[in-house]
């Protein structure tokens, strides 16, 4: 039947699938929306410094997507630190902010679920 171990592995597969889906969402954002973000954040010192690190490879683009996402999710701290200009933040469309926050908190959820699944698997001897 469908016991606890089967449920565990089905949940683990679902979390892995969510992680892969999130990776593709970040790749899409980093190749098709990141340039738009840099256009909007023209006066933001932190974004302009990070723009110099932008390459064509997926690793640097995902890294910068996460950095810019952290600036936008924690915008009050970024504005206080001088990384983000308050007027630039106000120009970011609400859908884009929602998408960035959704990616950020989804990654946090998937990461926590992976750690929990690992601890449960090790504790029960299933891994």
This entry's quaternary arrangement is single chain
Shape designation: elongated
What is the CA-atom radius of gyration, in angstroms? Answer: 18 Å
Approximate helicity band: over 70%
Number of strands: 0
Number of domains: 1
Order of helices and strands: HHHHHHH
Beta-strand proportion: under 5%
Residue-averaged pLDDT: 90
User: With helices defined by DSSP (H or I, 4 residues minimum), what is the helix count?
Assistant: 7
Can you describe this structure?
The chain is mostly helical and 127 residues long. It has one domain. Helix content is 81%, strand content 0%. The protein contains seven helices and no strands. Helix 4 packs across helix 7. It is elongated. 13% of the residues are buried.
Put the structure in a nutshell.
This protein is mainly α and 127 residues long.
SSE arrangement:
Layout: H1 4-32, H2 34-40, H3 45-51, H4 58-73, H5 75-81, H6 86-91, H7 94-124
Helix pairs in contact: 1-4, 1-7, 3-4, 4-7
